[in-house]
Amino acid sequence: MGKISGYIQTVTGCIKPDQLGYCHSHEHLFIADGHSAKVVPSLRLDDFDATCSELERFKKAGGVSIADAQPVGCGRMADLQLRASVRTGVNIMASTGFHKLVFYPQDHWLRSMDANSLADLFADEIENGMFTDCDTSKPSIRTDARAGIIKTASDIDGPVGDYVRLFTAAAEASVRTGAPILSHTEMGKGAPEQIKLFTDNKVPAESLIICHLDRVLTDTGYLMEVASAGVYLELDTIGRYKYHSDDDEVKFIEKLIESGYEDRILIGLDTTRERMKSYGGKIGLDYMSETFFPLLRSHGIGDEYIRKFTVANPAKAFAFR
């Protein structure tokens, strides 16, 4: 297929950036009842009708597009992503790549595949379609739906040890295809090391979306160092009161704006079973528009900024280069 520079790739095909609309930049819509759900039971999201109901809630609140951060080999359910997008009309950008190693059994194929083969696999899912049979066996059956994002993740120690192999593969696939990288940090840690590893492997900073940087807000100097690297900052500790209040989240966003980083902010809810209303959870994909955006406005962060975080910035961050 080759590179699709300037476009965003959804499960139903390529769209222009100005078609992306209001976008959540980090969610999980489907996760099978497999190893990931055994590690963290709240990750199981395998009810097609419930997820579609949640997407309809999102759409009613003005939502147009969602980045799904579940990668290959750990419960992604790519066939349901495609069906849900067709049924609801919500654009879904799906992920290839990898998650934290804890979400893969010790005998999983991803743990033993070399970096070049992994890069080939990630690029293949972007160019030819995602695999649907790869949680417990090597990929062989695929859907026509293509991934539009490369997901990466490291543990609290950052991209060290076996993660180097995985990050190197993701970098190669990104350079080859032009796809953006959406990278999990554990409690926000390891971001500078991730950025260095990627840029050393020729991935431009503007192709990097670093996630969960708002889990811990006490080390402002560290967070501003990450922001200064030219990457996109994905914030999703919204409505997660076990970490901090939404008021603290707003104060952090205020600091980013004051420091000139408003064009780098993306937001999401990092949904789980406990956070989707359609699964009996407490938040719902309409939480931003119903609760968080009014809070931002009450602090003087108006619709001009909200549009940047949800429309203008994602349209740049998720475009292929």
Nearest-integer average pLDDT? 97
What is the class in the CATH system? Alpha Beta
Based on CA atoms alone, the radius of gyration comes out at 18 Å
Structural class call reads alpha/beta
What's the main sheet like? Answer: 6 strands, parallel
Work out the strand percent: 5-15%
CATH architecture: Alpha-Beta Barrel
CATH level-3 fold name:
TIM Barrel
* Major beta sheet, strand line-up: 6-7-8-9-10-11
Q: Give me the CATH superfamily.
A: Metal-dependent hydrolases
Structurally, how many domains make up the residues? Answer: 1
Please give the number of β-strands.
Answer: 11
Distance between the termini: 14 Å
Work out the helix count: 10
Reading the helices and strands in chain order gives EEEHHEHEEHEHEHEHEHEHH
- Helix fraction bin: 25-40%
Uncertain residue ranges: none
